[in-house]
């Protein structure tokens, strides 16, 4: 009788332990999913600001139509990649990253063109939109960082013992989540040279 009570207590403790590991993985997965959703919210805001920026600039940049077309096309490609992005699909996340890099490049080129038009830079609406876009870019960077942190915590918990044994029985947790790559990752990793 005592042995069966001890055996049942051990089984119950084991079940409770497995359930707690499962619940921890669910929590970490949901945090990563939420962090990814926050990126999407900020990207949507960015996509909404860009057409307004282009509309204001069109009045002044009739000679730079190619630049405006590139920004618009890059925005549309990024919007499409964002709507197709899937947390567990490496290809869709790579496409999203590449589309964002193209959009960043087009916006950078657009900003360089704006430097040549002082009247346009003085436009109050354009200045306000540029500030909002910069603020949104900062929010995107923070959202990406939060997402990558969430993914790291999830993947670490998933790969740790004994969770790595338990995830084999739950298809939802079999694969690692994928971190988003930053376009400036290579630039960040370079050591700056200082000359005296």
From TrEMBL:
Membrane-crossing segments per the record:
6-29
Name a Pfam family for this protein. LemA
Which intervals of the chain form a coiled coil? 119-146
Q: Does the keyword Membrane apply?
A: yes
Give the family per the record: Belongs to the LemA family.
Cellular component aspect of the GO annotation: membrane
Q: Which organism is it from?
A: Campylobacter armoricus
Membrane disposition? Single-pass membrane protein
Keywords (A to Z) from UniProt: Coiled coil, Membrane, Transmembrane, Transmembrane helix
Task: Quote the protein name from its UniProt record.
Answer: LemA family protein
Localisation: Membrane
């Amino acid at each position: 009788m005592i042995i069966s009570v001890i055996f049942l207590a051990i089984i119950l403790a084991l079940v409770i332990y497995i359930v707690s590991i499962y619940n921890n993985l669910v929590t970490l997965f949901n945090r990563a999913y939420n962090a990814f959703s926050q990126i999407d919210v900020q990207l949507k805001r960015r996509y909404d600001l860009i057409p307004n920026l282009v509309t204001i600039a069109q009045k002044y940049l009739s000679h730079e139509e190619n630049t405006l077309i590139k920004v618009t096309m890059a925005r549309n490609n990024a919007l499409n990649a964002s709507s197709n992005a899937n947390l567990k699909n490496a290809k869709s996340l790579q496409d999203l990253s590449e589309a964002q890099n193209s959009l960043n490049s087009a916006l950078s080129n657009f900003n360089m063109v704006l430097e040549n038009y002082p009247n346009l830079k003085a436009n109050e609406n354009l200045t306000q939109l540029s500030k909002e876009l910069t603020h949104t870019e900062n929010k995107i960077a923070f959202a990406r960082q939060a997402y990558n942190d969430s993914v790291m915590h999830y993947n670490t918990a998933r790969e740790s013992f004994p969770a790595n044994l338990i995830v084999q029985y739950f298809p939802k947790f079999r694969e690692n989540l994928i971190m988003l790559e930053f376009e400036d990752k290579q630039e960040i990793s370079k050591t700056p040279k200082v000359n005296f």
